[in-house]
Amino acid sequence: MEDPAAGRELRSFTWEEIGQRDGRGPAPQERWLVIERKVYDISRFCRRHPGGSRVISHYAGQDATDPFIAFHLDKTLVRKYMKPLLIGELAPDQPSFEPSKNKKLVEDFRELRAAVEKMGLFNPSRTFFILHLCHILVLDVAAWLTIWYFGASTVPFLFAAVLLGTVQAQAGWLQHDFGHLSVFSTSRWNHWVHKFVIGHLKGAPASWWNHLHFQHHAKPNCFRKDPDVNMHPLFFALGKTLSVELGVQKKKFMPYNHQHKYFFIIGPPALVPLYFQWYIFYFVVQRKQWVDLAWMLTFYIRFFLTYLPLLGVTGILGLHLLVRFIESNWFVWITQMNHIPMHIDYDKNVDWFSTQLQATCNVHQSLFNDWFSGHLNFQIEHHLFPTMPRHNYWKVAPLVKSLCAKHGIEYQCKSLLTAFADIVHSLKNSGELWLDAYLHK
Known about the structure:
Layout: E1 11-13, H1 15-19, E2 32-35, E3 38-41, H2 53-57, H3 65-71, H4 75-82, E4 86-90, H5 103-118, H6 126-150, H7 154-179, H8 187-201, H9 206-218, H10 240-248, H11 259-266, H12 271-286, H13 290-336, H14 352-359, E5 362-363, H15 367-373, H16 379-384, H17 393-407, E6 413-414, H18 416-440
Parallel strand pairs: 1-4, 5-6
Antiparallel strand pairs: 2-3, 3-4
Helix pairs in contact: 5-17, 6-7, 7-8, 7-13, 8-13, 10-18, 11-18, 12-13
């Protein structure tokens, strides 16, 4: 590919100029970002970005060096496709990242990243992931055998539902591995197997997961950038700052002072069976993701062909709903324990390390916690190094703790039950903050 920058002198820019090209400033049609001191115009490219237009646009007007390194496997290949977007570089008198960021912390984290790569902690264990897939398939077969052998009475029906709910939860963690490109050394293989695991084993589209999840990782707990906090303000008031803001504005979409109670109704039990289950079909049809739809249909065809002769129409619909109910509770408690109790606010454009640490916390390591959460009990390490195979999180954790201690950053780690309780406590606290601001400010 011919280098469009060859033979011409690159323009020099200041951070002030770049910061105005964030898609919302004086030039709303322009979006620029910086990677390794090079300035790229992504105004048109963002719509063709393989990871989605939103995730790359969230860094418009900012330095995107660390997320670029964190998300991409073959950086040399990606840089070739970036060349047509290159419009200049930072002026010699400009720092390599925004002056507002902690220079020493950014440099120390990049040194840590280089050290972790040399240690081989980004190298996956094929055995680990093969065994994980096998245990999912064994549980899937065991669920069918339970009803086939013992019949469709209450006890075997419920036992099979628990097994299938476990299959869905564990397949969710496995698709997460492939989606983050942490199993194979090439993106292509990860993407192909990801479609199989999330499509055929779970009945969900890979494109939908990519669209939402990479935004979450790019700007965790940043309102209007992280879709995982989009439940604010329609259903919940989240975070101290946003809850007070909502109260001052006299906005009340729900009785937020009771949100820690109705969370048990519209949160864990309802998210998957009453929302995700139906929205994913709208998503793939609206975006014409026909390959993902085909993979999803193989899940439902297999499920109905294997259980319809044993349960009939009513029984199979009941089983499916119960499985989704179990999966939903498992999914919500695990995914929210690391984020809802943490700092939630608008994007303040702080450095990558601080962005992840203020939005995430860990849960104590144990064989059960590792399995039950898909190693998302190491949420801090996962967010700092999203392509790292999860079986290596525990190895990098002491290095991350040391960097936190050096810079006076809190590294939160708690028990599993405490993490669950903190979800409810944080909802109660933010609801009370909203109520006080709503009534008195």
